Amino acid sequence: MAVIEATPDEGAVDFGVPHVAIIMDGNGRWAKNRGWPRLVGHRRGAERVKQIVRACPDLGVRWLTVYAFSTENWKRSTEEVLGLMGIFARYIQKEADALSAEGVRMRFIGGRERLEPKLQALMAGIEARTSANTRLNLTVAINYGGRDELTRASACLARDLAAGLICEADLTQGALEARLDTAGIPDPDLVIRTSGETRTSNFLPWQAAYAEYEFTETLWPDFSAEALAEVLARFGQRDRRFGGAKA
Ligand code: IPE
Ligand code: IPE
Ligand code: MG
Hints:
Number of strands: 6
Helix content: 25-40%
Structural class: alpha/beta
Strand content: 5-15%
Radius of gyration: 18 Å
Number of domains: 1
Distance between the termini: 48 Å
Number of helices: 7
Bound molecules: 3-methylbut-3-enyl trihydrogen diphosphate, magnesium ion
Low-confidence stretches: 1-6
Mean pLDDT: 94
CATH topology: Undecaprenyl pyrophosphate synthetase
C-alpha cells in the first residue's frame, strides 16, 4: 500500500494549528429553518464533513477530530438514531476510495459495542485500509462521551492493576492517556463549536484541557472551508501560555 507522507502541502497556509476538533452542531435547526426533516440536515452535515476534510491539508491542519454522535444522543427518536447510523455507514462506504487516495487516515473514538456489527465492521475496515496514510488524520467520534471514555480507561487501569500487569506507582497521567480512545492522537489545539451553543457537551474533556475554543453562530451544514480559514486566522492571534508567565 502506498504511504503518502506528511510533508506540508505545497502552498499550505500555516496557522500553527495542527489539530482542530469540531463539535458539529446545528443540523436539526438548519433543516427546521427550511421546514425539512432533521435527517435532511444530518445528510447536509455529512456533505459538509467531506468538504472540510478536503480543505484541511491546504489550511495546514494535520489532525481533524469531529463529534458525530454522543453517548447522550441515544435519547433521540429511533428514526433519527437509525438515520444517523445509516449516514455513518454510507459515508464510510462511499468515501473509502477518496479518503485512501487522498492520504487520509481515518480512526474512530467512542464505545463500539453498542453499534450495529455491520457498522463496527465498516469502521474497523476503513481504519485498517487507511492506517498507513499520514497526510490528514481524521478521527470521528461516534457514541463518544468523555465521561464514558474516562470510565472505561479507569476500569482498564484497575483490571491491569488487579492482574499485576502494573503496580500502584504506574498509575500516572501517561498510563491513563494510553488507555483513552485517543491514545496516539495529539491533544486538540483548537475546539470549534458551531450553531451558537457555548458548551462542550462531553467532548474530549481530558484532551482539550488546554485547547482554545471558538464558538460560531453558523449552523454546521453552512460551515464552509472559508469559515474554517477565518477561525484559524483568529486562532493564530492567540497567546497560548499553558500556565507559564509571559516573558
Ligand atoms: C448535530 O446537530 C448532530 C448531532 C448531534 C448528531 P443537531 O442534531 O444537534 O442539531 P440541532 O442542535 O438540533 O440544531
Ligand atoms: C453535541 O451536540 C454532540 C454532537 C455534535 C455529536 P448536541 O446537540 O447533542 O449537544 P447538546 O444536547 O446541545 O448539548
Ligand atoms: Mg444540537
